[in-house]
Amino acid sequence: MSALKDYSFKEDEDGELPRLVTGDEADLESILKQYQPDGGKQIVSDKKINRANMQWKQYYDKQQRIPVTIITGYLGAGKSTLLEQIALKGSDKRLAVILNEFGDSSEIEKSISIKNNGEAYEEWLDLGNGCLCCSLKDVGVKAIEDMVARSPGKIDYILLETSGIADPAPIAKMFWQDKGLNSNVYIDGIIAVLDSEHIVSCLDDVSPASHWHGEKVTLDGDEESNTTIAHLQIAMADAILVNKSDKIEGNEAKRQKLEQVVRSINSAAPLYYTKYGDIDLDRILDLHAFESTKLLEARTETTFHDPRISTITLTFPFFTTREQFDSFIENFLQVLLWKNFGVEHPLTTQGEDFEVHRTKGLIVVSGEYKVIQGVRDTYDIIPGERVPNVKENKIVLIGKHLDETHIRKLLDSALIKEDN
């Protein structure tokens, strides 16, 4: 809610304010003197506006904004086991769990279980063909918004299990909406569940005959690549659960190889080992991954490099002027994410075609902290909080065929140096 429009009152030729004629004439001059310390330029005082803004914010945040955590991972990784553990352990939150019919829980249909102090509510939610990333994705969001609106006071948090064969990026983008749209849900984070015993071989096996992660992936009209759905699920994750960890206990070589492979794809997300999906909920809920700076703790040192999807971390000096920031956005970020608007550019004509799946950044402009969040070609810049011990700007890119040399050159060309 913004400040009310500034109205000015013009005195007539006699130096008196015009009078309203309503039967009982109001003494506007005395009213203005009594209630408007600015001489009649602002209808409502700043104090009242600030109080109203605070009351609205408290109502809006508490009553309308329900966080959504997306649970992704291939068939058999343990997504439903994780959700069952969460339901069994209980929480101080009233959780709504949306189960996808093509996931591990196909026998549960498309039900939503809402638990509150052990009491279960159930409501049927039709998500079209059961896949939120299909052509009916917008209808899916509306259905969930309607479900929240019809269940006031029953839901604090939503867990959404996606199809094991789903690319999580379109699902994340449809929930990632501007607050100005008054949506009653927002994305909190993406959790990827991996099968510790098979994930490495799944990532390596992209043959058409593969029965797990061998699907060819096509993005934005590009030709098919050897990138698998598993790569995309890991790349998009804000936290990674290596489930069935008991299957590799005692095999340190396999454990190290697993970590190297996963970290080469996404080094920004924390990695946790779990058995039967058992994990502290604080590690996967309320991450605020699309509005915080936690995600900047990327580790890029690894002895294994997957040439298909990797993480790149770039650092550069704080900006001291708005002009420097604008140049960074227009000449680096937009060129990178939008591939130079389709115009030929050295970056877009390099070797194999590249794709940025996730962008995360902390930028300081004249002492003001800004957080950059991006999914594919969509990005947002939001105000950030001061972070201790941060001495330079940082941006983390997770994507396919990212050439760090070319990207660094693009960044350098976009940075306006300070005059000495």
TrEMBL record:
Q: Which Gene3D superfamilies match?
A: CobW-like, C-terminal domain, P-loop containing nucleotide triphosphate hydrolases
> Does Iron-sulfur count among this protein's keywords?
no
Enzymatic reactions: GTP + H2O = GDP + phosphate + H(+)
Provide the CobW C-terminal domain boundaries: 309-415
GO cellular component labels:
cytoplasm
InterPro entries to which the protein is assigned, alphabetical: CobW-likC_sf, CobW-like_C, CobW/HypB/UreG_nucleotide-bd, P-loop_NTPase, Zinc-reg_GTPase_activator
Record keyword Zinc present: yes
Instruction: Name the Gene Ontology molecular function terms of this record.
Output: GTP binding; hydrolase activity
Please provide the record's keywords in A-Z order: Chaperone, GTP-binding, Hydrolase, Nucleotide-binding, Zinc
Extract the SUPFAM superfamilies matched here. Hypothetical protein YjiA, C-terminal domain, P-loop containing nucleoside triphosphate hydrolases
Family assignment?
Belongs to the SIMIBI class G3E GTPase family. ZNG1 subfamily.
What's the name of the protein?
Uncharacterized protein YNR029C
Source organism: Kluyveromyces marxianus (strain DMKU3-1042 / BCC 29191 / NBRC 104275) (Yeast)
